[in-house]
Amino acid sequence: MNKITKIIGAAVAGVVLVGAVATAVVWSVPSVQDRLMARVIEGRIASNDTQALLNDGGLHVLLCGTGSPMPDPTRANACAAVIAGGHIVIIDTGPGSWKKFAQSRLPASAIDAVLLTHLHSDHIGDLGEFGVQTWIGGRTKPLSVFGPTALPEPTEAADANGHQFGTKGTEDVVAGMTLAYDADAAYRILHHGADYLLPDGAMLQGHNIATPQKNELVTVYDKDGLKISAFLVDHMPVQPAYGFRVEYKGRVAVISGDTAKVESIELFSKDADLLVHEALNNEMVQLITNALNKAGGERLGKMAHDTLDYHVSPVDAAMIARDANVKLLVFTHIVPPLPTALSEHMFMRGVAEVRGAGDTKLGHDGMLISMPAGSDKIVVSDLK
Ligand SMILES: [Zn+2]
Ligand SMILES: [Zn+2]
User: Fold this and answer.
1) How far, rounded to the nearest angstrom, does the alpha carbon of residue 223 sit from its chain's CA centroid?
2) How far apart are CA 71 and CA 335, in angstroms?
3) Interval between CA 366 and ligand 1 midpoint (Å)
4) N or C, which terminus of the chain has less Cβ within 10 Å?
5) 147-201 pLDDT, tens per residue?
6) Numbers of helices and strands, H then E, in the chain
7) Candidates 3.10.450.50, 1.10.10.10, 3.30.450.20, 3.60.15.10; correct CATH number of 52-382?
8) What is the tens place of the pLDDT at every residue in 217-261?
9) Rg of the chain over all Cα atoms, to the nearest angstrom
């Protein structure tokens, strides 16, 4: 061992020793732990970099849920937050999505509307949480929730007491959700005082979207230059079911909702900056169906198989994006879960071959897609 090697060895040993002593001090002295923790908390609370997104002139889409009803530890269910012009509009509130939104540290009180593509449980399960958390965050008026009407024809099936299913639209569902949180609202008002938690903020106000004709846009939200319109998609037997077209200062983003391949998506995504499209990989779901059937789980196997006809494959979504000349395609509502790099690779099989010049990304929770004003740039980053 030469002299230089010995000096370096001694220096490394010194650094390791200092590190070990520092760790031992932090681990064993509560007052040091408290000071460190206070510094971390203060730093996080003082940081307002995400709040700047609200008024930077750009259109932003935060994915706050990119999963499906299949259990997936890395993805909440359907949710996208549109951020522009000082407003945040939430599109779908799937189970687990509130926490994903909250991790972004965007101001909850800036959420002034929720739009629902349809009333499947994986799109509405966290509506109550969005209601109560935005109220705690400072909202003082009822939260407006816009979504579809009831089915055109209710089902003929009824339960033993004669209850018929399918007569409820968004107004009824939202009224029911407000009722489900009534006791919670009372507890909080009693605990914190009505001066801090204004009772009006505890309420959700549902609105049924006036069902448009096929291939027609109906404006649902229009404030300070941020305009969001609904159009019909094909999620039969779920009807009406919507996709949403978002416009702000010349930038355009489209959220597909749940749908089979349908012409309205291509029509309203023409030359869009961003298309956030649902995607189900048929071959991979078929593998799951086969395995369930083989293991004697035919009931779940049939249900998995039934999902094939009302969703879109990644390759079909890529064709839609190519034909509509969309700049960036992002997959969401990912079916099945993709726990490994190999499964992600399989999910994307065939996409690049049909996509053409445009870009495609596999969405994940916390993905932020930013479209600055006065530019054709699209910046993809993470808010976690
Ligand atoms: Zn869904
Ligand atoms: Zn659905």
Assistant:
1) 21
2) 10
3) 18
4) N
5) 999 999 888 888 999 899 999 999 999 999 999 999 999 999 999 999 999 999 9
6) 13, 15
7) 3.60.15.10
8) 999 999 999 999 999 999 999 999 999 999 999 999 999 999 999
9) 24
For residue 111, give the nearest of 177, 179, 54, 189 by alpha carbon: 54
Please state the φ and ψ torsions of residue 313, each to the nearest 5 degrees: -75, 155
Catalytic residue, chosen from 49, 56, 92, 122, is: 122
Residue with tokens 């305009």: 227
pLDDT of residue 294: 85
d(CA 93, CA 80): 8
Closest CA to 117 of 333, 335, 284, 323: 333
166 contacts 154 by C-beta, under 8 angstroms: yes
- Inter-residue contact 245 to 212 (CB < 8 Å): no
Q: pLDDT per residue over 299-341, tens digit each?
A: 877 777 777 777 899 999 999 999 999 999 999 999 999 999 9
pTM of the model: 0.91
Domain ranges of the chain: 3-42, 52-382
Residues 9 and 53: their CA atoms lie apart, in Å, by 48
Distance CA 125, CA 67 (A): 13
Nearest-angstrom CA–CA distance, 333 and 22 = 45
| Burial (Cβ within 10 Å: 0-12, 13-18, ≥19) of residue 145 | buried
> How many angstroms does the Cα of residue 96 sit away from the middle of ligand 1?
13
Phi, psi (degrees; rounded to nearest 5) at 166: 105, 15
Backbone angles phi, psi at 355, to 5 degrees: -70, -30
Q: In the annotation, is 49 catalytic?
A: no
Chain centroid to Cα 118, Å, comes to 14
124 CA to middle of ligand 1, Å? 10
Question: What is the whole-number distance in angstroms between the Cα of residue 287 and the centre of ligand 1?
Answer: 20
- Cα 183 from chain centroid (whole Å): 27
User: Mind giving me the DSSP string for 259-284?
Assistant: -SS-HHHHHHTTT-SEEEEEEE-HHH
In which residue are the tokens 């994915």 written? 63
